[in-house]
Write a structure and sequence with these properties.
Elements lengths: L1 H60 L14 E4 L7 H15 L2 E4 L11 H13 L6 E4 L17 E6 L2 H14 L18 H7 L12 H6 L11 H14 E6 L3 H11 L1 H4 L2 H7 L16 H8 L2 H22 L2 E4 L2 E4 L15
Parallel strand pairs: 1-3, 1-4, 2-3, 4-5
Antiparallel strand pairs: 6-7
Helix pairs in contact: 7-12, 8-10
InterPro entries: Heparan_SO4_2-O-STrfase (IPR007734), P-loop_NTPase (IPR027417), Sulfotransferase (IPR005331)
Subcellular location: Golgi apparatus membrane
Keywords: Coiled coil, Disulfide bond, Glycoprotein, Golgi apparatus, Membrane, Signal-anchor, Transferase, Transmembrane, Transmembrane helix
Length: 357
């Protein structure tokens, strides 16, 4: 009898643990279903909004020729944001300014955050961006690889902007983001939630989430929709990304100098970004999204990653982008008393002929 009494509480404890485990699995399953339902609802609402705008366009414009938009309003900016580069902090500034500065902000929500569009979606997207009058001037943002609009025989090209970050710092931030989330939506369950392994431990054990291949992201985002862009370590992709950065992007900033990036954008494009610098400095949403539980990697971990060819190529691109941004900044702003100031216009016109009587 004594042995039976001793075994009974152990059995009850075991059953309680099993019941608790089953309950947690059921709860997690329900949370996942709710997240999927919410995402499906958001996509449905977005599709209905597009249909309503197109119907209004059809009713108002009909078959008659529409007058061209004023030049200041016939503008589109695409911010094909690289994950974990302070993109949410910057995008929230656009959302805060759009009502005051009278432009539209649209999030490009791709299935499973796939940055590569199918060919048919590329054609649809290009058509939407260039012909959707009701959404001009427009600021489009999303985790999408660069798309060359000149391939599609459309009138007008959007202006691209972007921000890059030190490759290892970006990967570390993303690693912890998948496990602990951030202070933007702290209650949202993340894909790797529950995994307590540090980034150092991951690298030491050769884990897949911290492998050098995971560094390969900024180059393909700038390189675009060519297959070679996504071949980790490709020097062709590196050169194509550099070419696009210089020739197709109005401005590419760096996370570490985000305020300077915003200041230059405000000076160059006040139609969109008037008031952005002050908002960034004083607004409640500045640096809004911060990854939680992030632990800096050790020197040994960094040294191990830096041995890979992929890091060397990604870092070469980052250094190239940083040098280009600093060149632009040197010709756009000046420091005085510890503060940066935008330079005034430094050109004018003279010797204009024929003379007007």
């Amino acid at each position: 009898m004594g042995l039976l009494r001793t075994m009974m509480p152990q059995k009850i404890q075991l059953l309680a643990v099993l019941a608790f485990g089953v309950a947690m699995l059921l709860i997690e399953n329900q949370i996942q279903k709710l997240d999927e339902a919410r995402a499906k609802l958001e996509r449905t609402i977005a599709r209905h909004e597009v249909v309503e705008v197109e119907q209004r366009h059809s009713e108002d414009g009909g078959g008659r020729e529409l007058s061209p938009l004023p030049e200041k309003d016939d503008m589109v900016i695409i911010y094909n944001r690289v994950p974990k580069t302070a993109s949410t902090s910057f995008t929230n500034i656009a959302y805060d300014l759009c009502g005051k500065n009278h432009f539209h902000v649209l999030h490009i929500n791709t299935t499973k955050n796939n940055p590569v569009m199918s060919l048919q979606d590329q054609v649809r997207f290009v058509s939407n961006v260039t012909s959707w009058r009701e959404m001009k001037p427009g600021f489009y943002h999303g985790h999408v690889a660069y798309l060359d609009f000149s391939k599609y025989s459309v009138k007008g090209k959007p202006m691209y902007i972007n921000v890059v970050r030190d490759p290892i710092e970006r990967l570390v931030s993303y690693y912890y983001f998948l496990r602990f989330g951030d202070d933007y939506r702290p209650g949202l369950r993340r894909r790797k939630q529950g995994d307590k392994k540090t980034f150092d431990e991951c690298v030491s054990s050769g884990g897949s989430d911290c492998a050098p291949e995971k560094l390969w992201l900024q180059i393909p985002f700038f390189c675009g929709h060519h297959s070679e862009c996504w071949n980790a370590g490709s020097r062709w992709a590196l050169e194509q990304a550099k070419y696009n950065l210089v020739n197709e992007y109005l401005l590419v900033g760096v996370t570490e100098e985000l305020e300077d990036f915003i200041m230059i954008l405000e000076a160059a494009l006040p139609r969109f970004f008037k008031g952005a610098t002050e908002l960034y400095k004083t607004g409640k949403k500045s640096h809004l999204r911060k990854t939680t539980e992030k632990k800096p990697p050790t020197k040994e971990t960094i040294a191990k990653l830096q041995q890979s060819n992929i890091w060397k190529i990604e870092n070469e691109f980052y250094e190239f982008a940083l040098e280009q941004f600093q060149f632009v900044r040197a010709h756009a702003v000046r420091e005085k008393d510890g503060e940066l100031h935008v330079l005034p216009q430094s050109f004018f016109y003279e010797k204009i002929y024929p003379k007007v009587n």
